[in-house]
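Risk mitigation, structural track. In case the binding assays with protoporphyrin IX containing FE fail to produce interpretable data, a predicted complex structure has been prepared as a fallback.
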Amino acid sequence: MTVPTHYSATQIVLHWAVAALVAAQYIFKDSIAAAWDAFRKGQTLPFDPLVLAHVVGGGLILAFVVWRLVLRLRRGAPPPPENEPTVLKSLAHMAHWAMYLVLAALSVTGLLAWFGGVTAAAQAHNLLKVVLLLLVAVHVLAVPFHLLILKNNVMQRMIRYAN
Ligand code: HEM
Ligand code: HEM
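Fallback model:
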């Protein structure tokens, strides 16, 4: 496999689509939390489109994550910036794989809770949502860190593509 110089257009579109879908899962989380609470108490709630959106959005995230993983394994990713210290290269690599893993685990635990009524899966889902938030926070802070300290614009890597 030849190492690509850029992410492909598909990789970039999928990256931003997942980022937007994940943001929506957190912003509109109250409806699914209320629906789950009601389910646990044996109550029924009127139809709420935001509950459906959480379930469909989560399923879509899982599909996009699998697609991204296939692309990442088949096509690869551009090598990290040359001036990046080795330890940071390893950390970035681990953070990327951790995000894929946590996103997939969030979707699977969500599906198990919702369709299987598994309480332990809902508890894991609640824990994983915090882990993902921490990973994404570090991931986003890495952008200005690269720009200001290492003087390289990694943001360009997720904007400019080559197939
Ligand atoms: C839920 C939100 C996000 C997730 C789960 C996520 C996940 C990832 C993953 C897994 C990669 C590795 C590349 C790949 O395999 O496709 C990546 C790369 C990247 N992400 Fe994100 N990302 C998110 C949000 C953001 C945001 C908000 C920004 C910018 C403010 C950003 C900037 C970047 C950049 C610049 C790269 C390229 C890094 C490199 O190749 O060295 N990401 N992201
Ligand atoms: C990566 C995808 C997903 C993300 C980022 C995500 C995120 C979240 C967040 C932030 C909450 C709010 C918890 C709270 O603070 O009350 C939540 C709750 C919940 N989600 Fe997801 N979710 C995802 C996928 C799914 C899927 C696919 C399903 C079901 C098909 C699902 C079902 C649930 C359920 C049942 C709850 C309520 C759990 C509780 O309140 O204890 N989620 N999710």
